[in-house]
Amino acid sequence: MVHPNPERLQAYFDGELDATAAAEVERHSETCAQCQAELDSFSATQKSVRENLTYHRADPGLRRRVLAALPAGTRERPQLSSFFARVGEFWRGAIGGALATGLAASLALFTMLPSVTDPLTIDIANAHVRSLMSDHLIDVASSDHHTVKPWFATHADVSPPVKDLGSRGFALVGGRTDYVDGHRASVVVYRHGAHVINVFAWAAQGANSAKTVSRSGYRLVFWRNGDLDFCAVSDAAPAEVETLVALIKSPG
């Protein structure tokens, strides 16, 4: 591909490109020292901001100076809490508390949604796309979990559970090793209709980051079980990906 301009490279890092464009930039950056250096710089900046940024509340004197500098008609703005209080009164008075409760729940859900620029999410989404566009989808091809499970034990750092779920619509097609967040991961590969579902597993580190996100048309479901972290990723319908996760989590 043509050497990407800085804006396109930044868009790739921020997760703003579609799957095809992201894969093109990724393939290019693997052999381009300049682009890889730029991506490393983005990662270092992001990490520094997250770890070192401090937050301070403006003192009353600064607030007075800012208000004094505003045009006369804009100096008195309602407090945010007062605004929401009036919105709440409106909804309660107009159509009762049920809709207000639903609105509050929707706002709470929105604020809790994880960022799609999370490096781990980007890493796994890119690894999934890369596996679909190369000959590295499967290292051991087998529909027999008694074959795939032992293969992980001798070829990977972790040996995740491998289930035969063909009768439930999720055909086991094999497994491979890949890299996630700088660590080698085991990947169990299932097929559901025309869709590939990669289930990544790696040694758990840090706090449990269970979450569900969507990125570039792919559904990613993260969870932890014991000393392993997992992520199932696919462009299958979200409900289908979550059904597979539930089957993997279930005992037996």
What does this structure look like?
48% of the residues lie in helices and 20% in strands. With 252 residues, the chain is an alpha+beta fold. It has a 7-stranded antiparallel sheet with strand order 1-2-3-4-7-6-5, sandwiched between helices. Helix 1 packs across helix 3 and helix 5 (80-95) packs across helix 6 (97-112).
Total number of strands: 7
Strand pairing plus helix content: what structural class? alpha+beta
Task: Tell me about the largest β-sheet.
Answer: 7 strands, antiparallel
Average of per-residue pLDDT values: 77
Q: Tell me the radius of gyration.
A: 23 Å
* Helical content band: 40-55%
- Tally of alpha and pi helices: 9
N- to C-terminal distance: 47 Å
**Poorly predicted ranges (pLDDT <50, ≥5 residues)?**
77-85, 94-116
- Spatial strand order of the main sheet: 1-2-3-4-7-6-5
Strand content: 15-25%
SSE ordering: HHHHHHHEHEEEEEEH
Shape from CA axes? globular
Keywords:
single chain, 252 residues, seven-stranded antiparallel beta sheet, alpha+beta
Helix and strand arrangement:
Layout: H1 6-13, H2 19-31, H3 33-52, H4 60-69, H5 80-95, H6 97-112, H7 119-132, E1 140-141, H8 145-155, E2 171-180, E3 183-192, E4 195-203, E5 211-215, E6 218-225, E7 228-234, H9 238-249
Antiparallel strand pairs: 1-2, 2-3, 3-4, 4-7, 5-6, 6-7
Helix pairs in contact: 1-3, 2-3, 5-6
